Amino acid sequence: MARRYWLMKSDPDTFGLPELKKSPKKTTEWDGVRNYQARNLLRDEIRVGDGVLFYHSQLSPPRVVATAEVVRAGYPDPTQFDRRSPYFDARSRSEDPRWYAVDIRLVKEFAREVGLPELREVAGLEDMVLLNRSRLSVQPVTSAEWNIITNLGRGEINLGR
DNA sequence: GCCAACGTTGGC
DNA sequence: GCCAACGTTGGC
After folding, report:
1. Which nucleotides of C are covered by protein (CB under 7 A)?
2. pLDDT above 60: residue A158
3. CA at A13, C1' at C12: how many angstroms apart?
């Protein structure tokens, strides 16, 4: 199966690139997602080896800061069963988990962060989910979009147009 | 900090 | 099943 690509958002006040870099094996559990559409992607679509654009929301401007890779596919998000977690969900049963997580590993920090206003201007990204349905915290990225954005992140001229 | 977009809840 | 009220996300 062809490698697929995703954009995953993180609030850097909670967990950002510095924390990812410091994590063991530069790997983290990407958890806490409490939206059903995003859950379905985590549970059913995202596979080991898929590429991830690591995105910082809540910044001015919000920006893509790194690439990562899925190293563990969807599994029940442990935080939903943890009463001390802000993501605890009393209605979820362990035999029928409601929420899923994946593990991602940092691959490459961008040489140049790519901000949202720039993404809006680049030819070839007009249909990005990020630019049209902004609130989804994990969303599909096409291979063409992936190539354009990772080129921008390398600081090279964008050849995608 | 504000507020628009939009997802979820719950009364009917 | 509809939809108003409410809560959250996230850009600005």
Report:
1. 9-12
2. no
3. 18
Q: For the sheet containing A63-76, what is the strand order? A: A27-30, A100-115, A63-76, A51-56, A5-10, A138-141
Strand partners, A7: A53, A139
A137 touches A38 (CB < 8 A): yes
Per residue in A63-113, pLDDT (tens digit) is 999 999 999 999 999 999 988 888 988 888 888 899 999 999 999 999 999
Residue A154 — pLDDT band, cuts 50, 70, 90?
Answer: very high
Å from A132 (CA) to C10 (C1')? 13
Angstrom CA distances, A62 to A119, A125, A140, stand at 10, 16, 18
Among protein residues, the one whose C-alpha sits closest to the C1' atom of B5 is: A135
CA atom of A51 to C1′ atom of B6, Å: 28
Q: Is the pLDDT of residue A47 over 80?
A: yes
Strand ranges (DSSP E) for chain A? 5-10, 27-30, 51-56, 63-76, 100-115, 138-141
Structure-token pair, residue A38: 């995003």
What pLDDT is stored for residue A106 in this prediction? 97
Closest nucleotide relative to residue A38's CA, C1' based: B7
